[in-house]
Amino acid sequence: MTCGRRAAGLVLSAALLGCHQYFVPDHPLRGVDSATTVEVRRVDFRKQDVEVALSGGSPSATVDGAWLFASGAPDGAPCARLAAASSIQPTGADGGGAIYTARFKLHLAEVLQVPSTLEVRVDGAAPRCLTIPFSGETAELKWSWQQWGDDPPFVNRAFRLWLPVNANNRYALSSDVMLFGIGRWWWPLRAGVNTGVGTNWATLGHPNGAYAVPVSLSVQGFPLVRREFALVLGASYELRPNYASEAGWELVHGPAAHIELARLPVHVPGFATGPRAGMIGLDFSYARWLPNGGANVVGVALSLN
Prior knowledge:
Blueprint: H1 3-13, E1 22-25, E2 30-33, E3 36-44, E4 49-55, E5 62-70, E6 76-77, E7 80-81, E8 87-94, E9 97-103, H2 108-111, E10 116-123, E11 128-135, E12 143-145, E13 153-165, E14 174-186, E15 189-200, E16 210-212, E17 215-225, E18 229-244, E19 248-263, E20 280-289, E21 295-304
Antiparallel strand pairs: 1-3, 1-12, 2-3, 3-4, 4-9, 5-10, 6-7, 8-9, 10-11, 13-14, 13-21, 14-15, 15-16, 15-17, 16-18, 17-18, 18-19, 19-20, 20-21
């Protein structure tokens, strides 16, 4: 397994704000044989589950096998491929038929990095193997987040260093660990808020060491996106409530401009791609901190989205 495949699996399998990470097809994905129909309902990248609905055919018919494989490189006979579901359980019923959940041991985000096909075995009076195109580059094989569509929420974390430039002794080298960030895409921008813990490092020349609770309100755009990399431009307003034993509490604040070079996860056709699928980036920023005469500040950060 390559590092890129691990990254894609990690990003797409992560929980999103504690919500279910379900994707649903934009268009019906069905396999049909005579009176029997199997339709793909959704995919859960956290649990490695594929949910299908069985309708029509014999009342005794059940789904008892599922396989996912690269469409261009089948790895075995129909309904006897290598990448088989480890378990299939009936999980209910609705107007579309009986619901079954196929759970895979493999990471779906790795398998789906190429156009893929799902095969489902239907047992009953007349067993059969149904083939369903599952993922690919065409619009008919596009998937979306079940709850959010094409504008999903995102979470991020970052480690940042700030260095004052030609400042008075009031400002010193600062470091922030942004433990939690939350936001949402609003195509083609995304907006969010980050917070965490930080400190201003005191030296003999900068005696005002302090603890901080940094908060950043930001908007980002993506003027250049390629298959594996993106250029990110952003603006933020930084709020830094500081506490120092000499001066007590003080609010340092000011605007900042950002430019970020981001590495994107491996392309997963049909699913979340580009920056929406997550990214890891190196961010450079220039800010103006106030009050006390103010200071021009440069920053560098490592961020994970």
